[in-house]
Amino acid sequence: MVFADAASDMNFFDNKDKVGSGIILLTALIYLNATFDIPINQVLGGEVFTARTLPIWLSIITIVVCLIQIFAPARGAVDESIADAIVGFQWKTCVLLTGSMLLYSLTFKFFGFLVGTFLFLFIGFAILKEKRYRLSAAISGGVAVFMWVILTQVFDIYLDSGDLYRLLAGG
Amino acid sequence: MLDGILQGLSTAFLPVNLALLFVGCFAGTFIGMLPGLGPVSAIALMIPITYGFDPSSGMILMAGVYYGAVFGGSTSAILINAPGVSGAVATAFDGYPMAQRGEAGKALALAAYASFTGGTIGAVFLFAFVPFLAKVSLSFQSADYFALMLFGLTAITAFSGKGQVLKAVLMALLGLMLATVGQDPSGIQRFTLGIPDLYDGVSFLLLSMATFAIAEALMVVLRPSPSTQEVGSSDTSFQALGSMKISKEEIKDVAPTVARSSVLGFFVGILPGAGATIASFLAYGMERNLASVKEKLRFGKGSLRGLAAPETANNAASTGSFVPLLTLGIPGSATTAIMLGALLSYGVQPGPRLYIDYPAVFWSVIISMYLGNIILLVLNLPLIPYISKLLDIPRQFLTPIILFLSLIGVYLVSFNTVDLLMMVIIGVIAVVFRVLNFPLAPLLLGFILGGMLEENLRRALLISDGSLEFLWQRPITATIIVITIATLLIPVISSLKKTKRVAQH
Question: Disulfide engineering: B470 pairs with which of A45, B39, B428, B464, CB 3.0-4.6 Å?
Answer without folding.
Answer: B464
